[in-house]
Amino acid sequence: MTPVAATLLRADPVLPPSPPPTGRAHRAEPSANPRPSPSTTQAPSPVPTAQARPAPVPPPGAPVISGHRWGMTQGRPLVLVAGGSSISVNTADLDALAASLTTAASHLDTAAKHVRSAKTDAENAPVPADIIAQDPSYNTVTGAQTGSSLLPDADSSFVANLIELPVAAFERKRSALISACDALLTGTGSLSAASRALTSLAADVSACSLMYTDAEHGATVRTDADVGARVHGPSPEALVAGVAIGSGLAFTAGVWLPTAILVDILTTYGFMPEDAQVVLEDLQLLLKSDVTSEWALSNIIGLACLGAWARKGETGREGATIEEFLRVSASRLDAKATAELPAEVQVGSRKVPTSSLTPMQRVAYALALESERAGVIRHGEPTGLLIAPHNKKGATGTAVRVPPGPQDPFGLGTGIAVQDLTGSRIDSPPSTASELLDHAQTIKGQARGDGAGAISILRTDHADGTRSWVVVVPGTTEWTSGDSNPQDLQTNLQAVSGRPTDMEAAVVTAMRQSGIQPGEEVGIYGHSQGAMTAVNIASDPALTERYTITSILTAGGPTSGVALPDGVRALHLESTSDVVPGLDASTNPVSPNRATAYVDTRGGSAHTESVYADAVRGAESGERAFADYSKDLSRLTGAREQGATTTEVVFDVTRES
Q: Over the range 500-525, which residues count as b (16 or more CB within 10 Å of their CB) and which as e?
């Protein structure tokens, strides 16, 4: 759950990974299978592949399943795509190819058996009698060549050097045959080597077939070691217990009770450095909640060790391991969370039965309420949100206020006037996923207000008089709860649970200020927390009636808890070493309008937008899902379109208390 990530999984004190983004409710209980992770194979582009969970792997560019080396990755990170409109693989063809390769290997093995038999026969065969009879130099008693009785020894030797006698010719041919058999049986190019290569290739093709099949059924893919076994990474409980015991640490609720009191004092009175203060605030949230206090007290050391392991991002299993750990933890905390919540809760614009949420959403909902209470204590009662538009030259419109998100979901209960906003012109608008990620990285730095968050809206005026839009929503910038910047931990908890958030209200208010009209195509991009804001907005019926959202791109965000409308095509980018996409404790659904690209970016900060941009840059020319998204984005931004003009307005978002 997100406070765990905030407290224990922060990647860097200067550039922390955007925290637990979030998932909207209304999906079936999540699968127990962890997210897939591409690490051992690369399916042939442009066909999307499924999901694979790795053991320690070879360097990028040299993936190996069972001995066969693929050369199609060209040194770039592996990208495996599940879902999207390109699900068109005939696994029967792959199975038939694997069977043919296996049969061919069997034929080679049979041929090798015949060669070995021929070699044995050649080694043991006697010299034929007719050849002996023709050779005057052969001693039939000793079985060896001797000098001719008809010629002096000197003359016999001279003749043998000039003319190959019959027995000698036979032995030369025998030796040549044995050498030829050896060449067929051993070494490079031998029958045995070719058979092993074909067998290895058949295993790889079978693994690809299984990955496609598993992707269609939402299952976890078999691994390289045994195509019949599923890899879940370390057992969550075994991992937490193991790292704690391995560290020689024992802990009980009684031992840690003074710690809870100390944390309360330090955070309440602000006696800690800022970075440590944030960690303690997040820990305090877990310790104060009746849902998680006992769990946090009994697992805190193991969680810290698990977080340290996950931050390294060295195995490619981090995302799946944290996802499975949270799934198990949420199922155990679910009863307490359900008892804390009313029978119905607010999810987006609607009231829904609490029972319709997943266990992770119910736990997150309870924590979100606790986070809101803690925010009031530290920063005062929230009174509203201030959304202020500006371009690179300064203010371009009038700032507006709406109530806090939980009080007025999406700000729809507040009247907002359309403004004639003058944006900054973008001469080369983004046309691919990597270009949009590159552009989005600049948005956070454009906030002008002190302690404000930021979002961006790109408007394209086409030559035919129509307009289209792209909304850009960055991720978390603050790991506290309830401060002036709503891109914080509190928003994360609200969003993963489905509870309305301040960022959702701010984004929709900015869309209304910009004058987006029904029928005008809208695309949304979100990173981390922004990913959940994007899918929550695109899935809410009150907004689908108002806006024509056709395209979504997310990076590093947990998005599985939301069922998107059929008219929305989504591409989700997830690194197998990034723990944030797994914080909703389930995997993304696979459908024709929804694709997830799993990228192998192990080592370093797997969560940053720059890492995602670099990872997918090399895959965009080969994968159908990226080509589909590029087509959608280019249409929205007017990239390389004659007569189209694209401008951008940035909106500061400030939570007022």
A: bbbbbbbbbbbbbbbebeeebbbbbb
